[in-house]
Amino acid sequence: MQPHVSRVWNFSAGPAALPQAVLERAQRDMLDWNGSGASVMEQSHRGKRFIAMAAQAEADLRELMQVPADYAVLFLQGGATQHFAQIPMNLAGEGDSADYIVSGHWSAKAASEAKPYVRVNVAASGEADDYLKLPPRDSWQLDPNAAYVHYTPNETIHGVEFHGVPEVGAAPLVADMSSNILSEPLDVGRFGLIYAGAQKNIGPSGLVLMIIRRDLLQRAGRPMARIFRYAEHAAADSMLNTPNTWGWYVAGLTFEWLKAQGGLGAMAERNRAKAELLYRAIDGSGGYYRNPIELSARSRMNVRFTLHDAALDAAFLQESEAAGLLALKGHKALGGMRASLYNAVPPEAVEALVAFMRDFAQRHG
Amino acid sequence: MQPHVSRVWNFSAGPAALPQAVLERAQRDMLDWNGSGASVMEQSHRGKRFIAMAAQAEADLRELMQVPADYAVLFLQGGATQHFAQIPMNLAGEGDSADYIVSGHWSAKAASEAKPYVRVNVAASGEADDYLKLPPRDSWQLDPNAAYVHYTPNETIHGVEFHGVPEVGAAPLVADMSSNILSEPLDVGRFGLIYAGAQKNIGPSGLVLMIIRRDLLQRAGRPMARIFRYAEHAAADSMLNTPNTWGWYVAGLTFEWLKAQGGLGAMAERNRAKAELLYRAIDGSGGYYRNPIELSARSRMNVRFTLHDAALDAAFLQESEAAGLLALKGHKALGGMRASLYNAVPPEAVEALVAFMRDFAQRHG
């Protein structure tokens, strides 16, 4: 342990903050994990110790999210972006079409990357509204024959979030939950497939968590190498080839930590309070700060805001970093600021941010 | 730092031993990396600090392997197995064929996983010899029109290794170096593409290192999502999407460590001495231990051996583990024992193993 570790409040959109307790545990066990005399990174994924840890991580995740038994849980690689392609490869046959709800940068990208593998029907889009609001459910042009319906419950860059799961009929609902998974309780049974890059609410990058209804594993998809087939990964307990063992381990530590925090109900309460605190500070700043998103679509995870004068942006970023508030710069496509408030960002971080914002506004009038 | 860390000698085939100095550095910096006040896992891959680290890792690798300027270095995901498929997707057009040299489990798998994407010509195979020797170069039936020639310089499971790079004419030579990369100096210019899963000689699993001649990036391949195209990854400096940031970081620490050890020339000498010590102990055991591989094909990295009586295997494994010698069990397909002697396994580990083997033979007569 370092004698003088000085930690900052980290608002990074991803790779993002991890719980300090998780980092301390990983640090402590780095050279000698689980009595093995070696790091967890140095263990065979086929060894007893690693398999027991991996199974415990899956069991904890199933308990946290109350995953029904007819769903497989997979620990994969490639980032959500690879699965933008792999999902249609697995779920759609030749000539099939799929519905995509486009509500921001990431769902637009999911639709675009799917095109080599499925006829993409953009059933609804918020583009004409600059993604400042969500396309209302009654405007969606769903195809009753779609192989699946894909949407992105929370848009990391645009800062919009669906509150509640949309009803889409018989087609399996596929959700990229990279930036809001584990942030609140969820009725997994409403979904056909949930997937998430780990680097926001789960663990380090390079790991993708997938929850897939087992009947979907029977879909033939198209001719492809085994390594791309979800059914093969499920049959091999995600050890079809060597998985990202470190990522799986840190994810497991995070699941353990979430359970100790009181589970997803407690996290939902904490996350709602954090977001409310920040939005109130923005809305109550008399126009000094501004969030452009329609109230009902505001994200609890990624809070965009602009300063009343963009000429102050550089000073805001410099002074906030000096005050120990990391990574507040907005995505380059949109400018302004963004504070990401994932599970591992404690309420104290948001309090510090809000205090800084008030102070900054006073000093820079 | 833990007060009572007890480390074992780790002969795991992969994920495998890492240099202790690398683990200690990762441990020290876990909560506060590079003065950032956050873990390296909590940094945006687009941030200045991470980009500088990533570039330094690439520069160190280029220096260690003397990678010519007309080669791109990529940090990818998916394991070597995914690239068994992705290589033909990128390098072969519709109707193309490729030559595969099959010298053991992994090259056979590479050939098999390529089949959905290219006509596979098995130009040579050691299968009839149970992979105990390598198919001699003058027996290879190479196709002058092959899109590329694929081989596996070292077979992790079968314990055979090509010593020297084969001449294959004009077709680009593609090599899966997962288990021998960085173990000795290499003339990269002889290859079209080199790839390696990181979990043996580089770092943690979930990272793939690729070195690809830039002209090969121009090959059209076939219609596919951008995420599968090596050219897109190269154009984005391996940040087309979020890379495995922890893996990249640990790989960088390993490259730094290799430079401090004196580079690949020094590692080659050390690796040769380690392998010789173990093979001498096996060959000099009067048949108590036995390695079945043809002398000229013996691997420096993965040393297979059997006991003269398989009924002693269980005792050997139990007593060796009690003596702090980890993961000596051979692959389940072959039985017996296997000691993997990658860069991070120090000479002292092999000395301890050899001493144990002598002692075991005396005690169990």
TrEMBL record, chains A, B:
Transmembrane segments: none annotated. It is an enzyme of class 2 (transferase). L-glutamate binds at R46. The keyword Transmembrane helix does not apply. One of its GO terms (molecular function) is O-phospho-L-serine:2-oxoglutarate aminotransferase activity. Pathway: Cofactor biosynthesis; pyridoxine 5'-phosphate biosynthesis; pyridoxine 5'-phosphate from D-erythrose 4-phosphate: step 3/5; Amino-acid biosynthesis; L-serine biosynthesis; L-serine from 3-phospho-D-glycerate: step 2/3. Its EC number is 2.6.1.52. NCBIfam families: PRK05355.1, serC_1. This is Phosphoserine aminotransferase. It comes from Rhodanobacter soli. The lineage of its organism: Bacteria, Pseudomonadati, Pseudomonadota, Gammaproteobacteria, Lysobacterales. The gene is serC.
